[in-house]
Structures are given as C-alpha cells and as structure tokens.
Design goal:
This protein is α+β, with helices and mostly antiparallel strands. It contains eight helices and 21 strands. It has two domains: about 230 residues, Rossmann fold, CATH 3.40.50.300; about 120 residues, Beta Barrel (OB fold (Dihydrolipoamide Acetyltransferase, E2P)), CATH 2.40.50. It binds adenosine-5'-triphosphate (ATP) and magnesium ion.
C-alpha cells in the first residue's frame, strides 16, 4: 500500500517564511494525482517533502502505514523525476539506469533483468549503449523515467518532467507516462503547469494557491463545478469569463441582469443576493455566435469585436460589452469582422455564479 497522507503539515523554510501553512491531503494507493497552481505556491515543496528532500516543520506525513517524518529519503521507497533529468553524462543509458541498483549491491543478473525490462517498456532498447548526449530530449527523459522504474518504487514523484520538451514530444510522453502508470499500478504524484497534462493525466487534480489547497477533485468536477473564482480561472483555456451582473426578481424567478439579457437562475442559493451584484462566470466555449444551432437555452448579448483569432475550424473572439472584456470560442465564420458589433449567445445552463466579496461559488 502506498497511499500518502498529509496531516496538518506545516513547512517553514529556514528564512522564517511559511510556505505551507496547514496541509491536509489524502492521496490514494495507485492514484495519479496532479498538483497545479501558480509559480511559488508550494508544489515542489510538497513533492520534496514526500521524497524526504525537505524536512517537515510540524504535522505528520504518512506513506502507507508508516509515519515518515524522520525517515531518510533512501528508505522511503520513492523515485523522483525532475524537470532537468540530470543523467550522468559519462555513463551509457544502460549504466545510467543500473547505477542506483549497483550502489545498493543488487545482484548483476537482477539488475540486468530490470534494466532490460524498463528499456523495453520505454522503447529504449536500441539506445542502451549510447551516452546521453547522443539522445534526443524525449529519449533522455525516458532514460530518467527508466532510472526511476528499475527501483520498483512504491511512489513516483514527477516535478514538471516534460517542460523541457517541444509540443509534439510532450504529447507523446504524456501518453507514455499515463500508460506507464496503468502498467506499473503505483501511486504517481505529478506537478505541471500544463492545462492539458493536468486535465488528461490526473485521476484527481489538486489546485493550490499560496500553499493552501483550493479544490482536490476529478478533472471533470473541477471543470464543471469549480468551488471558487480562482479554480474557475485556473482550470480551462482560454480562461473563464467573469462578468459583473445584478440579481433581480421577475415574479418568483431570480434573474441575472446583464446587457440585453435577463438570465433565470433556479438554484435557491441565489435568493440572498437579490438586489446585489454578483460575478457571473461563463467559459469561452459556452458562448456562441447568434444563430448557433443547439437545443440549449440561450441568452443574447451584443458586443464589439476587438480581435478575431482564427484557429482553423474555430476562432477566439475578444469582445467588449458594457465596458467588460470577454472571450468567446466559436465555430469559424468568415462574416464576423473586427471593429463591428457581434451578437453572441450564452448557453444558460453553463453559467456559474460567484460571490463578489468571497469569490466562492454560489451555484453552477
Ligand atoms: N530552500 C528555500 N528556502 C526558502 N524559501 C524557499 C526555498 N525553496 C522554496 N522556497 C520558497 O517557497 C515557495 C514555494 O516554492 P516551490 O518551489 O514549492 O513553488 P512551486 O509551486 O514549485 O513553484 P514553480 O511552479 O515556480 O516551480 C516560494 O515562495 C519559494 O520562493
Ligand atoms: Mg516547482
């Protein structure tokens, strides 16, 4: 069992700065968890605490049924892969993978078996006799993974392992790492800045800000039910639009008033906000050009098109409506021109409402 459990973990660095104020996080055995958040929010610190490369100021860190606060990194059964894969340049691919096992005095035949097995899975067999400088970035990254694999760790920690690779290789390696996770059936904790990696690889995504977990859930739940404006803005690209709107009552029904629209909100959680301003959230992909054929309930607005960004079959429209800037991601239409007014519709069922002061979600 290699579930990982943070209980009230605090991390204060030697300079007196507390970067993790009180972390409670339960990662399940064999789970693939992705940590995301802005630069400096404590992702690497969290990973390094699991690895034992950073001490824990207070609280408890459990791996399986073992309290590991004071367990040395080498005794934690963990392998870590970094952004800079740091291979030994003078050693062959084979030796790079075998080295850690040799240090542990593992018998030669077992080392050989493990290295060849890892090389087979990672498609590195043709390169075993090469030195790292004779490999591509993606091949080097695979060697770094192989080096971690041969140790049969209970937990894999990966800190932005693909950020040095170009877009095509990233996509390839993303699929390979996901397949590796399935095959090895071990716990993976993966740090990334990349939206697509987070959304496609994680069983669950942990969104952090200033060392505090904002939301920890499946990619789909984070996308559909973000708990606050930070998560809503962080997950999804282009980012969700936030629009100031007023809550009014039309008879028994609460409505969000914005531009030409009065958008009904059925959820009773909106009731205390009647007469007040709220923030309405809508993703660019849930705004369409008027005339867009779907059965969804729609609300229209008129906006001025500032910039049109064509992406083949789709286009991003950057518009202004009543002084508020919005982004819409719509199907390509050559008739839509910059510096003209454009009629857009919101898919009413995809609207999120947030409290203006606390930024917490009121309803979705
Ligand atoms: N050894 C250290 N001593 C003091 N402060 C540190 C140390 N290492 C990191 N920090 C600080 O702790 C905070 C969290 O750093 P961390 O590296 O965990 O962030 P991160 O989320 O991984 O960021 P990035 O996305 O840029 O890699 C930052 O403000 C950083 O400056
Ligand atoms: Mg980092």
């Amino acid at each position: 069992m290699a579930n990982i459990s943070f209980k009230n973990v605090v991390k204060t660095y030697d300079n007196g700065v507390t970067v993790i104020p009180d972390l409670n996080l339960e990662i399940e055995d064999k789970e693939f968890v992705v940590l995301v958040g802005p630069s400096g929010c404590g992702k690497s610190t969290t990973l390094r605490m699991i690895a034992g490369l950073e001490s824990i100021t207070s609280g408890e860190l459990w791996i399986g049924d073992k309290l590991v606060n004071d367990v040395a990194p080498k005794d934690r059964d963990i392998a870590m892969v970094f952004q800079s894969y740091a291979l030994y340049p003078h050693m062959t691919v084979y030796k790079n993978m075998a080295f850690a096992l040799e240090l542990r005095k593992v018998p030669k035949d077992i080392i050989d078996q493990k290295v060849r097995e890892a090389a087979k899975i990672l498609e590195l067999e043709p390169y075993l006799d090469r030195k790292p400088k004779a490999l591509s970035g993606g091949q080097r990254q695979r060697v770094a993974l192989g080096r971690a694999m041969v140790r049969d760790p209970k937990v894999f920690l990966l800190d932005e392992p693909l950020s040095n690779l170009d877009a095509k290789l990233r996509t390839e390696m993303r699929t390979q790492i996901a397949a590796l996770h399935k095959r090895l059936a071990t716990t993976f904790v993966y740090v990334t800045h990349d939206q697509t990696e987070a959304m496609t690889m994680g069983d669950r995504i942990c969104v952090m800000k200033d060392g505090v977990i904002q939301q920890f859930d499946t990619p789909q739940t984070l996308y559909n039910y973000p708990c606050n404006m930070f998560v809503a803005g962080f997950i999804g690209s282009p980012q969700m639009n936030f629009i100031q709107a007023k809550v009014e009552k039309d008879g028994d029904v609460c409505v969000l008033v914005f531009n030409e629209s009065r958008i009904p909100v059925k959820d009773e959680a909106i009731l205390p906000y009647v007469g007040k301003e709220v923030i309405m959230g809508i993703r660019p992909e849930d705004i369409h050009l008027e005339g867009f054929e779907t059965s969804c309930e729609k609300a229209s607005i008129t906006a001025r098109l500032n910039i049109r960004e064509v992406l083949g079959s789709e286009m991003n429209l950057y518009v202004t409506c009543e002084g508020q800037k919005l982004t819409a991601k719509v199907l390509y239409d050559g008739n839509v021109k910059e510096d003209e007014d454009v009629k857009l519709v919101f898919d009413v069922n995809k609207i999120h409402v947030f409290d203006k002061d606390t930024e917490a979600a009121i309803c979705h």
